[in-house]
């Protein structure tokens, strides 16, 4: 339901402890699928007898849900079996939650306050008051409700796929690997890429001939 945006698959995978979540923003190939299958196979041989793989519907034209299901089923023979489930319109939810109602009230009040301020500012001008700042989208940016001009958002938007050019949540992708017991570390730099886990041991020399702490 999110189109090309992998936010639902990514965050759903983090919340549910998924072994993998395939999304459009992070291209993958057969080597990645092979690595995920091998990891899941090895995990199933331990005390953890369950696994979960999520896929955004638009993540790949050729690596479809059926293809990934058949791949895992074939490679997991004798170790685990697979079931597939396409959520579809179930993702739209049901009745609005208390959070939804509260949030809707807040943004409605903020929108009316903004419109009122613009109207008061244009009184006496004798003409329509329209500029880039008066054509905005109200949304959340870094925990704040902000009015962002459409002219600025246009530069940051991939109109073909209807997603932002820079997704803030992509930096959380490595956490899924860590939670799924992959040998990976969390890179907090701007690159946000997975790096091999390397343990550095630092020796501290202590006085009086005491053994060094590692």
Automatic annotation (TrEMBL):
The gene is LOC108489982. Residues 1-115 form the Phosphofructokinase domain. The keyword Kinase applies. Keywords: Cytoplasm, Glycolysis, Kinase, Magnesium, Metal-binding, Transferase. One of its GO terms (molecular function) is monosaccharide binding. GO terms for biological process: canonical glycolysis; fructose 1,6-bisphosphate metabolic process; fructose 6-phosphate metabolic process. Gene3D superfamilies: Phosphofructokinase domain. The keyword Methyltransferase does not apply. Signal peptide: none annotated. Its cofactor is Mg(2+). It comes from Nannospalax galili (Northern Israeli blind subterranean mole rat). It comes from the Eukaryota. This is ATP-dependent 6-phosphofructokinase, platelet type. Pathway: Carbohydrate degradation; glycolysis; D-glyceraldehyde 3-phosphate and glycerone phosphate from D-glucose: step 3/4. InterPro entries: ATP_PFK, Phosphofructokinase_CS, Phosphofructokinase_dom, PKF_sf. It catalyses: beta-D-fructose 6-phosphate + ATP = beta-D-fructose 1,6-bisphosphate + ADP + H(+). GO terms for cellular component: 6-phosphofructokinase complex; membrane.
């Amino acid at each position: 339901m999110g189109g090309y945006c992998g936010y639902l698959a990514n965050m759903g995978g983090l919340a549910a402890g998924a072994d993998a979540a395939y999304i459009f923003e992070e291209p993958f190939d057969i080597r990645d699928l092979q690595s995920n299958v091998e990891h899941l196979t090895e995990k199933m041989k331990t005390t953890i007898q369950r696994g979960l793989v999520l896929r955004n519907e638009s993540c790949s034209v050729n690596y479809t849900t059926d293809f990934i299901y058949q791949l895992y089923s074939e490679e997991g023979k004798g170790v685990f079996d697979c079931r597939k489930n396409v959520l579809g319109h179930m993702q739209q939810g049901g009745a609005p939650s208390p959070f939804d109602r509260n949030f809707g009230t807040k943004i409605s009040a903020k929108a009316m306050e903004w419109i009122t301020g613009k109207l008061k500012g244009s009184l006496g001008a004798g003409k329509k008051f329209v500029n880039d700042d008066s054509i905005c989208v109200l949304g959340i940016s870094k925990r704040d409700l902000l009015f962002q001009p459409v002219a600025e958002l246009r530069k940051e938007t991939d109109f073909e796929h209807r997603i932002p050019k820079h997704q803030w949540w992509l930096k959380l992708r490595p956490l899924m690997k860590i939670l799924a017991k992959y040998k990976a570390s969390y890179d907090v730099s701007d690159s946000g890429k997975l790096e091999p886990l390397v343990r550095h041991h630092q020796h501290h020399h202590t006085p009086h001939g005491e053994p060094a702490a590692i």
